[in-house]
Amino acid sequence: MTMLLEGKETPFDTELFNGVMEKLKELQQEDYIESRRIIAEHLRSSMMIIADGGRPSNLDRGYVLRRLIRRMIRHMNKLQIDLKELKTLIDINVKDLGEMYPELIKNRETIEQVIIEEKDKFVKTLEKGEREFKKVIERLEKEISTKNEIDKDRKEIAKIIPGEVVFKLYDTYGFPPEVTAELAKESGYEIDVKAFDELFKKHQEKSRAGSEQKFKGGLAETTKETVAYHTATHLLNAAIKQVIGKDAHQRGSNITVDRMRFDFNCDHKLTPEEKQQIEDLVNKWIKEGLPVTKEEMKKEDAIKSGAECMFIEKYPDIVTVYTIGNVSKELCGGPHVKNTNELGTFKIKKEESSSSGVRRIKAVLQ
Ligand SMILES: [Zn+2]
Question: Based on the domain organization, do 166 and 256 belong to the same domain?
């Protein structure tokens, strides 16, 4: 719309982008208009996403932001612009766009901090990744020329970079696939997008389940103590449901060798009676010596069996379900004790507000 109103030929000639585009021209040592446009567009988008609360990560919108910032950095390198100038470019955008988007002014410090942090992370691996990429091209070129020597009449060989290479560059050096695709194009190659997507999907399923498991159990390290606390967490979860109600869902947990922390939905401070009832229930189950059993099953069967879980879509198709006697059934990565009689005595040390509508219990096993 601005382009039409201003009578310009591309969005990048409008006053929305002009400030940054001109500055890039001034700063650049190499002249690529496409790179200037990518930088201007990705910087603006990144700033908006960060102002809106997005943060770089390997999942969902965080991954979109990460790719925008990293591709932008790659193109700044291509133009041989000092990455310190990012701050200057951010300032120009805040000045040019801040009137329309006051959230850019309000969040200016955060925006700069997030972009610089992500830049620092990527810069560490960018050079190594580019060297690795060059090696791959040399290897492929050699392979192609050998094949051509053997069979001089053969048709031209497709110049394709295998999905595993694209994935390795992503996984080891943090190269988003579009960055690898651009590098490839500069050498006359294409990337195998389909093969990469498949590997990437598998990897994401794994890391989702992994982060979910950490979120649920909080088991950063596995010791005799943390395993016992993990099982106690499942018992506490079940006890809270019996005493407070079915809607008192787990919201998070954290375990160390000497205590457990458990967050759950609840609209009120627990009464002394409620705390006592919860504590008594857990201790009753411990005394009963309930067996803890583990089963692998299809996700849909787990749901049908009534197993507890949060964010079902984040689990892989085959899941592990831990059952404790007939009091608890949860999707969980484990590990757990074999029998609840290994746990000792459960004691609630503290009950407090964690955030709005969420209560937090700190407890120990003695
Ligand atoms: Zn668990």
Answer: no
**CATH number of the domain residue 233 falls in:** 3.30.980.10
Ligand 1: centre distance to CA 61 (Å): 27
Burial class of residue 162 in the structure, from the number of CB atoms within 10 Å of its CB (0-12 exposed, 13-18 middle, 19+ buried)? middle
Q: Is residue 207 part of a domain?
A: no
CA of 285 to the centre of ligand 1 (A): 17
Inform me whether the pLDDT recorded for 17 exceeds 90.
yes
Average pLDDT over residues 223-245: 94
- Least confident span in 11-20, 204-213, 229-238: 204-213
Residues 230 and 174 in one domain: no
Centre of ligand 1 from the C-alpha of residue 273, in Å = 27
Is the pLDDT at 81 greater than 80, yes or no?
yes
**Is residue 176 located within the same domain as residue 312?**
no
Ligand 1 center–CA 4 separation, angstroms: 57
Residue 353's identity, in one-letter code, is: S
Q: How far is the CA of 333 from the centre of ligand 1 (A)?
A: 6
Give 364 Cα–ligand 1 centroid separation in angstroms: 17
Q: What is the pLDDT of residues 184-217, one digit of tens each?
A: 999 999 999 999 999 998 887 776 665 555 444 4
Question: For strand 160-161 and strand 358-365, is the pairing parallel, antiparallel, or unpaired?
Answer: unpaired
* pLDDT, average across residues 57-63: 83
- Residue 309 Cα to ligand 1 middle (Å): 9
Q: What is the pLDDT of residue 215?
A: 45
Distant-in-sequence, close-in-space partners of 322: CB < 8 Å, separation ≥ 6:
234, 292, 293, 294, 328, 329, 330, 332, 334, 336
Q: Please give the distance, rounded to the nearest whole angstrom, from the Cα atom of residue 320 to the centre of ligand 1.
A: 10
What is the count of structural domains for the chain? 2
- Write down the pLDDT at residue 124: 87
**Alpha carbons 32 and 182: distance in angstroms, whole number:** 13
Measuring CA to CA, which residue among 256, 242, 247, 251 is closest to residue 328?
242
pLDDT at 59 (0 to 100): 76
CA of 231 to the centre of ligand 1 (A): 7
Structural domain range at position 278: 214-365
Give the distance (Å) from ligand 1 centre to CA of residue 206: 17
For residue 318, pLDDT over 90 is answered with no
